[in-house]
Amino acid sequence: MPPSVALSLQTPSWTATVDEARLSASLDAMAAIGLQNDGSVKRLAFTEDDCKARTLFSEWLIAAGASVRVDAAGNLIGRIEGTEPGLPALMTGSHLDTVPTGGRFDGALGVLAGLEVIRSLKDQGISLRHPLEVVAFADEESTMVGCKGMTGVASDNPADYTCSNGQAISDNLPCAGGNWQQLGQARRDDDAIAAFVELHVEQGGILESRGDVIGLVEGVVGQRRFLVRVEGQANHAGTTPMDGRQDALATAAQVILAVQELAKNHPGDPVGTVGKLQLWPNAANVVPGQVEMSVDLRDLSLEVLSELVEDLESRLRSISRASGCPITLLPQFSVDPTPAHLSVTEAIAASAQTLGLSCSALPSRASHDSQEIGRRWPMGMIFVPSRGGLSHSAAEFTSSRQCADGTAVLMQSLVRLDQRLNKVTG
Length: 426
Description:
Layout: E1 4-5, H1 20-31, H2 48-63, E2 67-70, E3 76-80, E4 89-95, H3 108-124, E5 132-137, H4 145-151, H5 169-175, E6 193-201, H6 206-210, E7 214-220, E8 222-231, E9 235-236, H7 248-265, E10 271-273, E11 277-280, E12 286-287, E13 290-299, H8 302-323, E14 327-335, E15 338-339, H9 342-354, E16 359-364, H10 369-373, E17 379-384, H11 400-420
Parallel strand pairs: 4-5, 4-6, 6-17, 7-16
Antiparallel strand pairs: 1-16, 2-3, 3-5, 7-15, 7-17, 8-13, 8-14, 9-12, 10-13, 11-13
Helix pairs in contact: 1-3, 1-11, 3-11, 7-8, 9-11
């Protein structure tokens, strides 16, 4: 377990104060849009409920004194200007779209925490040197077209996108105020953003198990995903002797165990998962002749990812030789890890310490908009606990106090970055 960040009991010179009740009310109002009978929230990107959520958020931003615009990638951006013209923007935010049975906090907390920061700065008469932007990124849960559009890596081929509402991305973007024909214009200049900080619920149980209030995210892990195909020989289950079989499923079982073992035994803390399995002919009285399965490997280190893949390839060769079943490893998906930037993590750690909130380091093993944004600009993430480690479900829960604590750390982190970044030296 990474060491907890040491706490300081000294009285801070400035303390971030946010309105817990106001933030909680905003989360409740947002959760009412797309609320399902089982208590889950369904706001698929580009649907009517997603657009209602974006409209409400836009109204709140304007009421708080922010200007609002939507870029070509569908990102809804609220902005308050800084006191020193020409400085790049400090940015925070997340997403408002959900999975089909989503929770109340995934994504929405990060967006509404940014709104609460704008409101609280105004309440306390605090002006930042830098502009502050709060972003609701478009379609984080499926295509990530919003964050990819902002960084300039979004594909211009509609066939590369599978939207959760079943419509083409070129038809969806205009519904959110974007413009498919001008997607490239969503790309921000290198000097447009000073730093990006995202507050998010952990979606896991590590912070709760440690008893820590704040998670200092070391980075977003990289992923390597494969399709493994095992070729056996389908044959009669009754007449084929055990020592005369090429059982693709029995061989696949060895592959599944190998994936578990290589992740558990590798130094560090990687994860490996077989989450999808198909077999043919899938009949009770037939020795399985073919199996296909997914393999998902994740870690914060590129070197570890490479070692995991090499280990997997070696184990598959050994299993294939012993079983007599050819095994093919087909790459399906690859994304490199994005480490958090030291300047941002230092600001987060110092802010948690100043506020007297216990804080410890951990990686994010789920993808976030930060993963793409952090490839171009300094990025950091703040996690708050998820009760029972549950997310993407009606049972997702983070208390109003935990949400407010995370928002206070976000606010003070932005103020610290505002004071430290882009200083003019004489």
